[in-house]
Every structure is written in C-alpha cells, then in structure tokens.
Specification:
Length: 380
C-alpha cells in the first residue's frame, strides 16, 4: 500500500489496489516488539530474519570486481559459464544428472522467481496453487498476484480430486527445518506427473543440513532421471553470504524454463553481468561453504542448548538456518517475553495457523550476538 493511502483506496481508475489483495507483510507486525527489544541496555539481538552477517568470501568479491567492466546489457538466459557452474554444482553435490544448458536460468534472487512464477506461467482465476502448510509467504503472494486460488496442504490426500497447476515443495523447510525423505519426494513427483501438475521445489537450504541428508527432487532416484514437469529453485544468499548480490537460479524441465525465459526477456529480468561472474565463482567453490557451515553449526549448537535449558522444545530443525522452538504457549506471548530480554524472533503464525505455538529463531547473527542471546536466555 502506498504511504498515506488508506487501505481500499484506488490508485488507478477505481481499480482495487494490488497491495490490498496481498497478505500483510508479516515483519511489519513485529515493530512494537522490536522497539521493546531495542530498549534492552545491551541492545537488540535480532534473530527474526535469516540475513547473513559474515563477510562475502574474498574469492567471490574478487570475481565480482573482475567482472566490473560490463558496459553492455547482460543476457536474460545468463552466461554459459554461470549455467554450467549451476549444472556442475547440482551434479557434484546432489547427484543430479538430467540437466543441460537449456535447463537452467539465473534469476534475480529466489524470492523474485517464487513470487512471479504463477504470473509468468499464465495462471489465473480457476487455477489452483498448493503450498506447504507452514511456508514462507512468497508462495501465497505469487498465487494471489496471478488471481489463482492458493491452499496450504502437506498431504496429497488433502488436495482431493483437484488438479493443481503448481504444487510447491520446500525441503529443507523454512521455517521448520524439516527435511522430506526421498520416498516422499518420489511420491509427490509421481502424483504431480499423473495429474499434469508442475512441481516446483524450493531447495534454497539444501546445503544447510545439520542432521541426516537432504535430497533434490532432481536426484535420479526421485525423478527417474528426467526433469519433466519439475523445477527446482536454488539460492546463493545463504550458502555463500550473497544475499546482497541477488543471485539464484531455477533448473529443471527445459520446456518450462524456455517459457520463463521468453517472458523474462520481455520484462527485462536480467542478472547484472558482474553478479553472474561472481555467481559462477561461488558455485564452482565448495571450500567457503564448508567454512561457513562450521560457523553456523557452532551458533546453532549454542542457541539450541540455551533454548532447551530455558524450557523450550526444539521440533524438526534438522536443516535450514533456524530453530523451530516452542514452550507450548501462544507464539506471540513467547515473542513478547523474549523481546523483554532484548531478543527478537519470528512468531510461527507468520508461516501458517499451525505455527501458533512456535517461534522461528535464526542463528545467522554474529558469534558475539549469539553469545549474548545465550546469556539472556539463561535469565529466563
């Protein structure tokens, strides 16, 4: 909604404003609790968002600088180098074998792709989009922008006889950190293919696993060696501390990727050339990911132990950059109590009604801030 314009007012010619159709931006409702947390004598510890704070690896910064002489327009399809780097990474790290250069498309951050996908693929009234029961708001936003119906369901039987146009998976999950097992992923692949449903798997946390193993839907044992009817979405924001670069890509069914490319060309949705150079460098290097993984593992352990000692139960959380914590009480009470200690967390209802007794606690803050949070939790 535009500043100073009451909800429901028209912007153009008596039409309903697009912003009035969208869900409220959840983090706006945390402002009161953020103000409380800021009044703590030692300052706020913001664990409500998963924003990376550690430096972007030097080799990636150097790659960005090396690509800085970029006077011409970048190609929407992306360079051969960045697309091949994405293919090689998925093969090297997750055993994906069904991709070629026409199966990969770099995008300007995964949120942009997720929020625009339904519109770009021509969905509209009468179409159905299915998202996880607990999910980041962007899936719903994308369906609503297209005018489609959006329902939240984790069970295929809950969908009934209907044939969704798009079904979203998110494993590892944001917010819960839950990882779906390969047999479940294969079941969803088969179900979608039988119904002509496009399966889109948000796999942005695939390298942020702490217990067990996570799988891409494009693994040959899950997809049968074919990307038909499947897209997977990947981001470098978390794995490589590149949130400020807006580097992500979508991979899978080449016919769907080709359609997205045709639409995005007309919209001018292009990753800047220097970012593409940096993105290729990041995907071709695994060492910096191991280093960052070690930092997060330590912070996760500190916070998890402190939360449990303070009376919280940690559910799921085997992956992602969050702990899904509960005291068995209304999540807003937990948010308020932690804010009094100067700690800001996200209420579970941001992600769906079934999160009403949980909070999402990010462990992406610095060692110093996480250490301070541990001390404050001990006072609860």
């Amino acid at each position: 909604m535009l500043p100073g314009r009451p909800s429901g007012d028209s912007v153009i010619g008596g039409r309903q404003s697009v912003s009035d159709r969208l869900p409220d931006f959840p983090w706006d409702s945390l402002s009161e609790f953020a103000a409380t947390a800021r009044r703590h004598p030692d300052g706020i510890i913001d664990l409500s968002v998963g924003t990376p704070v550690d430096p972007t690896p030097a080799a990636i910064q150097q790659a960005l600088a090396a690509g800085a002489d970029s006077p011409g327009y970048p190609l929407t399809i992306g360079t051969v180098e960045v697309r091949q780097a994405a293919i090689d990474w998925l093969s090297r790290r997750f055993g994906v074998e069904c991709l070629d250069l026409n199966s990969v498309l770099p995008v300007i951050g995964s949120k942009e792709l997720i929020s625009g996908l339904a519109v770009h693929l021509g969905l509209g009234p009468g179409d159905l989009v299915v998202q996880p029961a607990l999910a980041y708001p962007s899936y719903e936003v994308g369906g609503v922008l297209a005018g489609a119906e959006v329902i939240a369901a984790d069970s295929l039987t809950a969908i009934g006889p209907r044939r969704p146009a798009i079904l979203w998976l998110n494993s590892p999950s944001n917010p819960t950190g839950k990882v779906l097992p390969p047999d479940h992923l294969k079941k969803v692949v088969d179900w979608c293919r039988e119904r002509g449903t496009l399966l889109v798997s948000d796999e942005c946390y695939l390298e942020c696993v702490w217990e067990g193993e996570a799988y891409s839907v494009l693994h040959p044992e899950i997809c049968g060696g074919s990307s038909e009817g499947i897209l997977s979405v990947h981001s470098l924001s978390k794995r490589s501390n590149l949130a400020g670069y807006r580097c992500a890509f979508v991979a899978g069914d080449s016919a769907v990727v080709s359609e997205l490319l045709a639409v995005r060309k007309n919209l001018g949705l292009q990753i800047p050339g220097p970012q593409q150079v940096a993105m290729a460098a990041a995907l071709n290097d695994d060492e910096h990911v191991k280093v960052q993984h070690g930092l997060y593992a330590r912070r996760r352990r500190w916070l998890r132990d402190a939360l449990v000692a303070a009376g919280f139960q940690i559910d799921h959380s085997e992956a992602s950059l969050y702990l899904w914590a509960t005291k068995g009480e209304d999540c807003w009470k937990t948010v308020a109590d932690l804010a009094e200690q100067g700690i800001l967390v996200a209420p579970g209802t941001f992600y769906g009604p079934s999160g009403r007794e949980h909070v999402r606690v990010a462990f992406t803050a610095t060692d110093e801030r996480v250490g301070a949070a541990v001390e404050r939790l001990a006072a609860l």
